[in-house]
Amino acid sequence: MTPNTLRFPLQGAALPLAAVPSAPRFEHHEEPLGIGEDRPRLSWQVATGLPDWVQTAYELELGPDEASLTSYGRTETREQLLQPWPAPPLESRQRVAVRVRVWGNAGDVPSEWSPVAYVEAGLLTASDWQAAMIRPAWDEASDANEPAARLSRTFEVAGPVASARLYASAHGVYVAHINGRRVGRDILTPGWTSYHHRLRYQSYDVTEYLRPGTNVIGLEFADGWWRGNLGFQEKRNTYGNRTAVIAQLEMTDAGGAVSVIGSDASWLAGRGPVLSADLYDGETFDARLVNRGWAETGADTGAGTDTLQPAVVVDGFDPAVLAAPDGPPVRATEELPVKAVLGTPSGKTILDFGQNLVGRVRFTVIGAAGTEVVLRHAEVLEHGELGVRPLRVAKQTDCYILRGDSDGETWEPEFTIHGFRYVEVSGWPGELDPEAFTAVVIHSDLVRTGTFECSDPMLNQLHSNVVWGMRGNFVDVPTDCPQRNERLGWTGDFQIFAATASFLYRIPGFTTSWLKDLAAEQGTDGPPPLVVPEVVAEKPPFPDRPVMAAWGDAAVLVPWVLYQRTGDLEFLRRQLPGMVAWLEAAARAAGPEMQFEHGFQFGDWLDPAAPPDSPGDARTPWQLVAQAYLAYSAAVAGEAAGLLGQDTEAERLRGLSARSRAVFRKRYLHDDGRLLPSTQTAYAVALRFGLLEPAEHPAAGARLAETVETDGYRIATGFVGTPLVCDALSDEGYTTEAYRLLLQTECPSWLYPVTMGATTIWERWDSMLPDGSINAGEMTSFNHYALGAVADWMHRSVAGLAPAEPGYRKLSIRPKPGGGLSWAAARHETPYGEAAVRWELAGREFSLAVTVPAGCTAAVYLPDGGTTGVEVGSGSHSFSCTVPLDAVPSDAVPSDAVPADAVPSATADGAREPVFLP
Ligand code: RAM
Fold first, then answer.
1. Is 687 exposed, middle or buried, given 0-12, 13-18 or 19+ CB atoms closer than 10 A?
2. What average pLDDT does the structure give for the chain?
3. Structure pTM?
4. What residues pair up with 440 in beta bridges, in sequence order?
5. Would you say residue 755 has pLDDT above 70?
6. How far is Cα 853 from Cα 835, in angstroms, rounded to an integer?
7. What is the number of the ligand 1 atom nearest to the C-alpha of 490?
8. pLDDT one-digit tens code per residue, 577-598
9. Fewer CB within 10 A of the terminal residue: the chain, N end or C end?
10. Which domains does the chain possess?
């Protein structure tokens, strides 16, 4: 199990007075076994106690193993990230050892060699697949969940196996077993992609699973995303009405001879103990049938082969669709014990795990064969009972039928996951022991890279809620919610959360995969789908590919954020055609006048003023939102095209941006500098999206601050305005107002849910009403990461840690103390290594400690009312200053202790973070 704690691989207690490079990384892979790139780019971090260290050159050595490495010469560059593969392209299955050493600006002595890292290619061409996609021959119902099927065969192994790989995938979700042992720790493989474009396969090192003599290999598989319940339209069979698997086991003996066992019509099909399994509805498992359905090796299963039938080959399956993963698999990452056992008014028993999470429950039980234990999962209680209404039709119910083992039997479902904090248990034999239950937390096994803490426990809880919201919704694709019959890759949600996510976890591999699907689904004409992978089109109210600002803008802004945070231009290169296709579609929808008028868009979705049954009815019209986004996204895409050297395209896109900006100004900006409508979202987009001239900023900032005050320092923004409003305020010098908004506890606010005991971010500010009843809206999720995007402001502005150049090669350290905080701290493992900021405020004395990774520099801005930054190189630095009055906690300093002339002008320097603006 991967601890979900921050790992900063290079930071020891004392850093050496030499440069120590890390083992190279390959593309954005965490475990580079079975990768799909034949020339993976290489990156490394450098740990050093030498101050201001910058690389001046590197040397790579590659070879088949550590003993036979070849140098590829010295390359003079400061670049440590994503350097080109120096050797001939990898062939399928080829395994290569790589190490690096570096020279720095501290003298012309090379570093020690880094540790060796191994990379291994997967099956790079369709012709590498000898195996067939196979399925059981029996008839199946297409309108209900089917039992999970098993496909297996026995085979002989002549002697010791030197090395073995299993390559496998499925239509459905699968788990492979070899000789009774589950292969690997991955869950819900092959994961969810746009299956008709890209079906992932997994590669496993299974050398240790094999033995001389008779062996058995089998894959068990269930409906999953392929044909199970999927989406809010109550659809099934989205990708097909038959599940199937493909598996290719390649074994190499000591002499190098290779034998291959591939799935084909000789495999045997059987039904196992999983009577039904569905991502939304849950799993039913009959433990009395545990060994049923596998081919037998003779002694070890005892299930009888008489029920097995031959498999059939799936017609027309083209292995060209098979693709290696770009990001990490879904896995169990943490376990939580029961926190409390609750009795309900109606006499039920409920387990409270104390944390809203995504995963499932494992338990150990002793009882008579045939006893049925049923677990129902939900995120909240209502009137003391399980609150299942927000789940809509998703049942989230698991059922286990005991085999009657007197030593006890342990079970955890395999082919389902739930969003829950509470579990209602029925049918438990005997007295319920809370220690018999464990919640298993499941999501994409991303490396944690960011933390935030401060002196305010409520803000820390809010931040924890953001992290848990992300964990629950990063399950192979970024989903809106993890519990009801939805769980879809809504583009808008990820668009607004991508920067926050990039700080908290290492997401470039995960996002590469999702963006490939977005591009594949979008094609080169028209908008991307509303959800990726696409499963909602064609049915009202979602016509095929509508233009939907903020959602469609994911095609531009997600790759842009990833470029900003990683420095990887490939994000822009791969997505530029989709950016252009989206912007052209948006421009077409705006008509010849480039002005949005008719139709429907989500707009500032879920503005708290919108009625529960009409979430698009925001106080800011969608036309304003669409106009602003078109201007902004076209500017970003123009910047992207420029970075890629496509100057004509860049000019064209900038022209498009300018036209939309002009329409925005003409239509919404009035002579007195006021925007009409004068809403928080209108000012936030105008200020943050570069729609105003510099001279117009102070007035607009003042109006925004006024509006926020008039709105009682409560949230008056939806999906679009909420992630921007604190930045818009603090950019213009209204940091105090931004803190008042952030620290508000009355509904609607970020902290109201915290006062209600929330442990994740909610979809609606009042998903739970103050009286403990659940909001009546159709969409009332208790785990929706989108509105947690404010954490990005907490990282960049409260703590003060932001990228100033792509990949954090230059950091912007600009803490904005306020809100009564006496300290705040953030850490982030940038692509170069750990960056850290911690500040303290005692009275008016502000002190700041900063860590800058090797290879990077930082511009440090102190909250002293000044406007110029101090440039520093890598290493640890301390600063201090006296802060002006308005940043001091009101209870810390008597107001007459500060001379009036210490109060700064409202705006520091109007400078904006590079994260949002091109
Ligand atoms: C809801 C989703 C999502 C949002 C869309 C428009 O169904 O939960 O958060 O993007 O609506």
1. buried
2. 93
3. 0.94
4. 335, 360
5. yes
6. 6
7. 10
8. 999 999 999 999 999 999 999 9
9. N
10. 20-121 (2.60.40.10), 126-277+289-323 (2.60.120.260), 330-444 (2.60.120.260), 800-918 (2.60.420.10)
Query: How much is the average pLDDT of 20-28?
Result: 97
Measured from the CB, is residue 27 less than 6 Å from ligand 1? no
End-to-end Cα distance, the chain: 40
Task: List the structure tokens of 873.
Answer: 């190189």
What single DSSP character describes residue 726? H
486 catalytically annotated: yes
CA torsion 141-143-148-150 (nearest 10°) is: 40
Ligand 1: which residue has its CA nearest to atom 2? 480
Instruction: Give 218's strand partners.
Output: 152, 177
Q: Tell me the CA distances in angstroms from 658 to 77, 548, 638, 653, 666, one per residue in order.
A: 37, 20, 11, 9, 12
- For residue 688, give the DSSP letter: H
Known active-site residue 871: no
pLDDT recorded at residue 886: 61
Structure tokens at 302: 């005892």
Backbone phi, psi, residue 809, to 5°:
-60, -30
Is 605 close to ligand 1, i.e. is its CB under 6 Å away? yes
484, 392 Cβ separation under 8 angstroms: yes
Q: How far apart are CA 455 and CA 201, in angstroms?
A: 46
Position in ligand 1 atom list of the atom nearest CA 602: 6
User: What amino acid is encoded at 507 in this protein?
Assistant: I
Q: How far apart are CA 475 and CA 156, in angstroms?
A: 38
Q: Which of 763, 829, 834, 913 is catalytic?
A: 763
Q: How many CA atoms lie within 13 A of 868 on its CB side?
A: 2
Q: 169: phi > 0 → left, psi -120 to 50 → alpha, else beta; which?
A: beta
Count Cα neighbours of 289 within 13 Å in the Cβ-side half-sphere: 19
3-state per-residue secondary structure call for 396-412 = CEEEEECCCCCCCEEEC
Q: Does ligand 1 have an atom closer than 6 angstroms to the CB of 602?
A: yes
| Distance from Cα 722 to the centre of ligand 1, integer Å | 15
Max Cα distance, the chain (Å): 91
